[in-house]
From TrEMBL, chain A:
GO terms for biological process: nuclear mRNA surveillance; poly(A)-dependent snoRNA 3'-end processing; rRNA catabolic process; U4 snRNA 3'-end processing. InterPro entries: ExoRNase_PH_dom1 (IPR001247), ExoRNase_PH_dom2 (IPR015847), ExoRNase_PH_dom2_sf (IPR036345), PNPase/RNase_PH_dom_sf (IPR027408), Ribosomal_Su5_D2-typ_SF (IPR020568), RNase_PH (IPR050080). Residues 22-152, 155-219 form the Exoribonuclease phosphorolytic domain. The keyword Cell inner membrane does not apply. CDD domains: RNase_PH_RRP41 (cd11370). The gene is EXOSC4. Gene3D superfamilies: GHMP Kinase, N-terminal domain. This is Ribosomal RNA-processing protein 41.
UniProtKB/TrEMBL annotation, chain B:
GO terms for biological process: exonucleolytic trimming to generate mature 3'-end of 5.8S rRNA from tricistronic rRNA transcript (SSU-rRNA, 5.8S rRNA, LSU-rRNA); nuclear mRNA surveillance; nuclear polyadenylation-dependent rRNA catabolic process; rRNA catabolic process; TRAMP-dependent tRNA surveillance pathway; U1 snRNA 3'-end processing; U4 snRNA 3'-end processing; U5 snRNA 3'-end processing. One of its GO terms (cellular component) is nuclear exosome (RNase complex). Coiled coil: none annotated. It comes from the Eukaryota. Pfam families: RNase_PH (PF01138), RNase_PH_C (PF03725). Residues 70-204, 232-293 form the Exoribonuclease phosphorolytic domain. One of its GO terms (molecular function) is mRNA 3'-UTR AU-rich region binding. CDD domains: RNase_PH_RRP43. PANTHER family: EXOSOME COMPLEX COMPONENT RRP43 (PTHR11097:SF9), EXOSOME COMPLEX EXONUCLEASE RIBOSOMAL RNA PROCESSING PROTEIN (PTHR11097). It is found in: Cytoplasm; Nucleus, Nucleolus. This is Ribosomal RNA-processing protein 43.
Length: 245, 322
C-alpha cells in the first residue's frame, strides 16, 4: 500500500492542495453559443463542459411525441481529446448513453414539461476536458443552459460529488482521486426542497459511511447552487441592462 | 409595382436600424402600398433567399459585410491541456475546437518508418439546430476525408518524422476537430484549427525497448512537430450562380448555388494544394481566377492571425476554452 497515492496528507491537504470539504474553483458563463436557444459553459477545476439547449421545438420524429407534455432528450458527449488517454469514439457508447439517460430523468422532474405539449427539448452536453467530476459538471451546465433558454423549471438542479477515503469524506473529487479507487458518489439535489433527485455510486462503500458522504455531497450541491444562482443573476442583470437601455 | 415596395432596399443589420417596407412579389407589393409591411426578421423567415438577394443586389450582406470581406479569424492556442496540441478558432459566430492526441502504433509493413495523421471533423447536434443526434453527417465525413487527402498530398508533416523505431513503433496523431457553434464556413474554420493545433503540438520523448518490445514515453510534452507549411483554406459562396461572396455565414450557406474552397500554402502564395467545388451551379473561369486573387490576400491575414496567436498564447495551458 506504500506505493499508493496519498489522497489526504497527514496535514489534511489533498493532492491539489484543497481541504477535504472544499470544492474546486468554478467558472461559469451563460449564453456562449449563438446557434443554441440556451447555452452555458462551466469550468470546475480543470473539467470543462459546454451545454447547449434547443427548444421547446417541434419534434422531428413523430414517434417520440407526447400529447400532454414535452419530451426531453439528452446527449452526453465526451471529446476524444478530453482525457489523458484518448478514447476512441464509439457511436453508441453504453456508458455515455447511461449518463445521458440519468441526466434526462433528473431534468424531467424539474422542467415544466406540461407547459409545452407535443414538443421536444434537446440538451446537448459536450465535455471538452476532464479532470474528474464530468457528470456533475455536465448537470450544472445543463441547469444553466436551460435557464438561459428561458425554459420554466420548478427548481435548480445542483450536482456535486463526494468520496470516502482514510476514514473521512472528501468533496468534489478530481481525476487523480477518482482513479485511485476512492468510492465516488454523485448527487444531484433540488436546493429549494433539499430533495435528492439523482444519486450515483458505482463502487463499494460501507453502509455506515453512506450518510456522511451524502451529507457532504449535499453540502457541495448547496455551494454549487450559490455559484449557479450568482451566474444567473449576473446574466439576468446584463439582459435587463440591454433591454432598458 | 408600388414605388414603396420597389424602393425597398434593405439596411445592413449591423448598424441597428430596422428595415421598414420590405415586400416580396407583386401581390405582397400591392399589400405594401396599403400600409402592410413586414419587419426584417419576419421577412427573413418567410423568404430567406429573397432576403439575402435584396442585400446582395445592394453590394452588402445581411451581417453588414461587403461581398468580398472575410470575417477575422480569432485563434487561441492550448485551450485543452489534456491534448498534445489544441487550438480554438472563431470566424464570427463559428467556433471550432481542435485537439491533437498522439498515440503509439505499429507502422504498416509497406512503410515501416511512416507515422499517421488522422483528421476527423465532428459536427455534433450541439452546434446547430439543423443537426440531430445520429451517425456523422455526410458533410462531416466529406470534409474529414478531404482534409486527410490534402494533408497527405501536400506533405504537411513528413510521416517519417513520426517514427519512433522503424518497423515497430510510430506516432499516430489523432486530430479531432469539434464544431461548437455552426455560424457558417465550417470548412475554413476547421482547417485553420487543424493547422494551428498541429503547430502547437508537442510530443513526449519516446524510447523503444527491443527486449520488451514496448515504448516508454516521458511525462512531459516537449518535442515540437515539424510542420512544413501553413495551409490556409479560403471559401467563397456563389449566390444565384453569379454573385460571389467571401466566407459565407450559416444563413447565407443555406441559399448558395455552389461553394468554392481553395487551399493555399501561405508561405508560397503561388501554390494551391486543393481546390474544391463540389457540384452545384457552373461558374465561369474568370470567376475562379478572380477568387484566387482574393484567396491569396486572405491567406496573408490568416497567417498573421496564426503568428499573433502563437506569440500570445505560446503553451499557456490555462486559457479558458470559451
Amino acid at each position: 500500500m506504500a506505493a499508493r497515492l496519498e489522497i489526504v496528507s497527514p496535514e489534511g491537504l489533498r493532492v491539489d492542495g484543497r481541504r477535504p470539504a472544499e470544492v474546486r474553483r468554478v467558472l461559469t458563463r451563460t449564453g456562449v453559443l449563438s446557434q443554441a436557444d440556451g447555452s452555458a459553459y462551466i469550468e470546475q477545476g480543470n473539467t470543462k463542459c459546454l451545454a447547449a439547449v434547443y427548444g421547446p421545438r417541434e419534434p422531428v420524429k413523430r414517434a417520440g411525441v407526447l400529447h400532454d407534455r414535452a419530451t426531453i432528450n439528452v446527449e452526453y458527449n465526451v471529446s476524444s481529446f478530453s482525457s489523458g488517454e484518448r478514447r476512441a469514439k464509439l457511436r453508441r457508447d453504453r456508458k455515455l448513453l447511461e449518463i445521458g439517460l440519468m441526466i434526462k430523468q433528473t431534468f424531467e422532474t424539474v422542467v415544466a414539461t406540461t407547459s409545452f405539449p407535443r414538443s421536444e427539448i434537446d440538451i446537448y452536453l459536450q465535455i471538452l476536458q476532464t479532470d474528474g467530476g464530468a457528470v456533475h459538471t455536465a448537470i450544472n451546465a445543463a441547469t444553466l443552459a436551460l435557464i438561459d433558454a428561458g425554459i420554466p423549471m420548478t427548481d435548480y438542479v445542483c450536482a456535486c460529488s463526494a468520496g470516502f477515503v482514510n476514514d473521512q469524506a472528501i468533496l468534489d473529487l478530481n481525476f487523480l482521486e477518482e482513479s485511485a479507487d476512492v468510492p465516488t458518489l454523485t448527487v444531484a439535489l433540488l436546493p429549494k426542497s433539499g430533495k435528492i433527485s439523482m444519486l450515483g455510486l458505482e463502487s463499494r462503500l460501507h453502509i455506515d459511511k453512506l450518510e456522511p458522504v451524502i451529507a457532504l455531497a449535499s453540502d457541495g450541491c448547496m455551494q454549487m447552487k450559490d455559484t449557479l444562482d450568482e451566474a444567473i443573476r449576473i446574466s439576468t442583470r446584463n439582459l435587463a441592462k440591454t433591454v432598458l437601455h | 409595382m408600388a414605388p414603396a415596395a420597389a424602393a425597398a432596399a434593405p439596411t445592413p443589420a449591423g448598424n441597428g436600424t430596422s428595415v421598414s417596407a420590405m415586400a416580396v412579389d407583386g401581390d405582397v407589393a400591392a399589400a405594401a402600398s396599403q400600409g402592410f409591411s413586414l419587419d426584417p426578421d419576419t421577412f427573413q423567415k418567410i423568404h430567406p433567399a429573397e432576403f439575402h438577394r435584396r442585400f446582395l443586389s445592394q453590394g452588402v450582406r445581411a451581417d453588414g459585410r461587403p461581398l468580398q470581406k472575410f470575417r477575422k479569424a480569432k485563434i487561441s492556442l492550448g485551450p485543452v491541456s489534456t491534448a498534445n496540441g489544441s487550438a480554438m478558432v472563431r470566424l464570427g459566430d463559428t467556433t471550432i475546437i481542435c485537439g491533437v492526441k498522439a498515440e503509439v502504433a505499429e507502422p504498416k509493413p509497406a512503410a515501416p518508418r511512416s507515422g499517421f495523421i488522422v483528421p476527423n471533423l465532428d459536427l455534433p447536434p450541439l452546434c446547430s439546430p439543423n443537426y440531430r443526434p445520429g451517425p456523422p453527417s455526410e458533410l462531416a465525413q466529406t470534409v474529414s476525408e478531404y482534409m486527410d487527402q490534402v494533408i497527405k498530398s501536400c506533405d504537411l508533416v513528413n510521416p517519417e518524422t513520426l517514427c519512433i523505431e522503424p518497423g515497430h513503433a510510430v506516432w499516430v496523431l489523432y486530430v479531432d476537430i469539434v464544431c461548437l457553434n455552426h455560424g457558417g464556413n465550417v470548412v475554413d474554420a476547421a482547417m485553420i484549427a487543424l493547422a494551428a493545433a498541429l503547430k502547437h503540438t508537442r510530443l513526449p520523448q519516446a524510447t523503444y525497448y527491443e527486449t520488451e518490445s514496448t515504448v516508454r514515453v516521458t511525462d512531459t510534452f516537449t518535442i515540437p512537430l515539424s510542420v512544413k507549411r501553413t495551409l490556409v483554406p479560403v471559401t467563397f459562396g456563389v449566390f444565384d450562380a453569379a454573385v460571389v461572396i467571401a466566407d459565407p455565414t450559416a444563413e447565407e450557406e443555406a441559399h448558395l448555388s455552389t461553394t468554392l474552397t481553395y487551399v493555399l500554402d501561405a508561405e508560397n502564395g503561388e501554390a494551391a494544394y486543393g481546390v474544391l467545388k463540389s457540384g452545384g451551379s457552373a461558374v465561369p473561369r474568370d470567376m475562379l481566377v478572380a477568387c484566387w486573387d482574393d484567396a491569396r490576400k486572405r491567406a496573408v491575414d490568416v497567417v498573421a492571425a496564426l503568428a499573433e496567436a502563437e506569440q500570445a498564447g505560446n503553451r499557456r495551458p490555462d486559457v479558458a476554452a470559451v
